[in-house]
Predict the 3D structure of the following.
Amino acid sequence: MCGFITTISRKEISRFEILKANKYISSRGPDQTNRLSFEKDGYYYDSIHNLLDISNSFISQPIFTDLKNLLLFNGEIYHPKNNNPDTLNLYQELIRNNLSNYLRTARGEYAICTFNIENKLIKIYTDLIGTKPIFFGISKDSICISSYKSAISHLLYNEIKEVPPNKKIEIKYFDLENPEISYEDFFKLDLKQFKSTYDSWIDAFEKSVKERSVHFKSKICVPLSSGYDSGAICCVLNKLRIPYSTVTVGNSENKKILKKRISINKKFSCKKHYQIPPLTKKESEKVSLFLKEKLGNIKYEHKDKDQKDAIMLHEDGGALGLAILCKQMSSKGFNVIISGGGADEIISDYGFNGKKIYSHSEFGGKFPKNLETIFPWKKFYGDSQRSYLKKDEMVAGLFGIEGRYPFLDLNVIQEFLNLRSELKNEKYKSCVSEFLERENYPFDKNSKEGFNPMKSEVSILKKLLIKSKKLLGTISLIN
């Protein structure tokens, strides 16, 4: 994980303003900050890169040897050639004019920006799901590209666009007032549903977790719940004997299953489990204010962009809990979180067998015989996927922790798409459920509980009511 901001302008931007804009993204790179500033043919170039160094190489960015090849990189490539640092491999492919081909076969999570100063050409690359944030802004006489919209906004750009997932963008800026911008889909997915066993998906998922866990000097933690996704991640780590720690915030999880998981994990490769108490109302308000001050107003989108009931990221309980989690784990030296992000959006669409678990589900998790009739569903690339990735990336980024997403690996997604629809629909989160059942790892079956880190008397009352309902039949509560 890194954060960067770069500008190309007809007018020189003051050092004070560019450094001030960098404050919005500097926490993403606590290990090193590097600035490159120069003028060429009447254009002023200014770049700042903040490095989180996982490879222990401390390669300064932008990396360049000439004005045809400058590179800024945020993310990780999980099969680096000859075990070289990611950035070095990417740059070697860039100068060979082979970067596009390399990325199409690479396994990783990234947002990459390259510059050819002589040809006045910018290229931006995002991975299949767009796990790492990147934005660009256009003004009358300048272009700005950054990991966060807030950094560009500080420099008073009116037109700011988020780079979509699965894209290669080219910006030709011979005329800065009217640059030529072209978009290209970067990866092509096979929508044929022909695989009749879960084996290939399970193999791909295990490989995905392994790659994200043994990448250079990663010290990893897993937010542990009683549900499917974190359980599958821990199960792989246990199976492969990869060292890790787990952490839980609050007490809303199924305590019986959680206790079993902690016991099992410690018998394998889990070094320690951390339990963080539920947030009080006062603590929640304090964390919410902190997130708003650092990140600004970021809207969650689960249905339509103009939905009236949308909330802001700093109001979301999951974001507050993640902030507390990251603060504690960062203080203990952890630099990576292995996240279950994307499993609900890709594998279940927040539903099962046509029944919506959450109202923002699009098709209730019932996959058709012809996948082309629904692909790409909104959550595959958009709304909830975008909102929750922003939450994970931006909140974890405040504490210098990198998010990694094994469920969003290109091969894992491709293997899921290729499963026959009958297998997709066989059970809730079918491929994950199958894996957990094969490994005899406990999970809260057929249950989807949202992350609730808050101390809540209402939640306790709700549990009591459910228990009473089983004993006494239907009852009602008057508020």
Observations:
- The CA atoms of residues 352 and 428 lie 6 Å apart.
- The longest strand covers residues 32-40.
